[in-house]
Amino acid sequence: MVQEPITPAVDGPTPRRIADAYVHALADLDPLTAVYLGLNPDDDRITDLSPAGRAALADLARSTLTELDAAEAAGTADDEAERRCARLLRERLTAELALHEAGEEYRAVRNLGSPVHDVREVFTLMPTGTEQEWELIGRRLARVPAALDQYRATLAEGVERGLLSGPRQVTTVVGQIGEWLEGEVPGGWFGAFVQDAPESLREGLTATAVAASDALAALRDWLRDVYGPAAADVPDTVGRERYTRWVRYWTGAALDLDEAYAWAWEQFHDLDAQMRAEAEKVLPGATPMEAMHWLETDGPAIKGEENARDYLQGLMDGAIADLQGTHFDLAEPLLKVESRLAPVGSAAAPYYTQPSLDFSRPGRTWLPTLGRESFPVWDLVSTWYHEGVPGHHLQLAQWTYLADRLSTYQVTLGSVSANLEGWALYAERLMDELGYLTDPGHRLGYLNAQMMRVLRVIVDIGMHAGLDFPADSPFKPGEAMLPDDAREFFGQYCGLSAEFLDSELVRYLGMPGQAIGYKLGERAWLTGRAAARSAAEARGEEFDLKAWHMAALSQGSLGLDDLVAELSAL
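Given the sequence above, the corresponding structure tokens read:
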């Protein structure tokens, strides 16, 4: 199946042309993002992480919005594809500028997705097949010390302005960097990375890696000795005003926080009942926590990192083989997805990285091993349906495949977290509906994953918006939801390791509003599917789930404010 580009008939700027011009302009300003997109492959720069670099990105967003205003005034957004792109571009850039104008970049210390994480991760995305590609890596690696100095300058200005991240983020990032610096070869993580380089380049690359590692050590020491004390009294939670801005950014919606919080508690009670019933099948007489503990310690497990990677690859390959032609019609490039082991020092949660625009780098799932040698499978199955197939991979790879038919912006930079995570959680539910989670352990893992996403809505909104545990809460009813209480409550109802849950709490505090998008996004996907099914039945037609899936996955990105209406109309 070959996709032919759809070219707007209108001459001059249209929303899609403006959006795609923005992608390329941003790739020039932000080379780290360009690597993720597969653009500018010969560029060896690292993004300017200084305040001036952040301001340049904001200026680009403002000028793009001005162009969009002019295009819409000229009537070039005259079909639905253009209108959809225009809505997305305006909403995304406006949400990003709101964060910039509030100085959020000066607080960018968090355990996941911060600039220092981006600087390291870019090397895992670069090709390493030829000597020329390793030379490019070496040139970019030589720029790491300057980039980290720019990042520190931005954080230092945040200190001057009184805009700091909370102490839990600082402690966690200091610890993460410490892990990156460890290793048996000089240069820590960077030194280990370049050991795969051609022998003719290895000595020079190792010296460059040592310099990058020294710069990391200097940043760690500054965070610990200067930034940390300055942030000691900063609240770990952000308050309702800041939280509302972040919710808009992560969900593409003006959510009613109180309604979402109440809805999540209803879901909590329903899932708790389901988990109790499933736990009885796993271990008669056991509570859900007891059954999950047994599965974690005595249930089926994969021994060894590489065996775990192979197992997860098999799960994804099997799902593609089963779903192709029955519930999805996938183009050939989507049939390849790779299972990888996450770099040492990653956050605890598995993740997915999107293919490059030309599919030369395929979609990949990443398993953080956290030093383990044994990997219980009870919770891995539904997780890889979420991260890989039919979850993130089918949506994001389909978007990449359709980049020319939509716009590059809609399938890359314009992605909305709650849309993505909502689809991935829907994908887990779909596999349950299709009978892939009949094993009681696997299904308890799925229900536990659902419970984790409901608990995310509860604790994320509760902590940051300053809400209380409700009167019908089984834990501290009527009391304020403080971070330590939220962590204890989470641990009582979610069968994940203490290390993982600790990492999760820091993540929620450092990325306010992101964690609620999974369950609220799934709610939007399910609402849209139900409405489309009802409309088909009202017309006297049989609902075609495969056709609906492919149409839904071919729309490109949408915020939750638009998603339900668009899905309902398919």
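Residues 15-234 form one domain. Try to locate this feature in the token string yourself.
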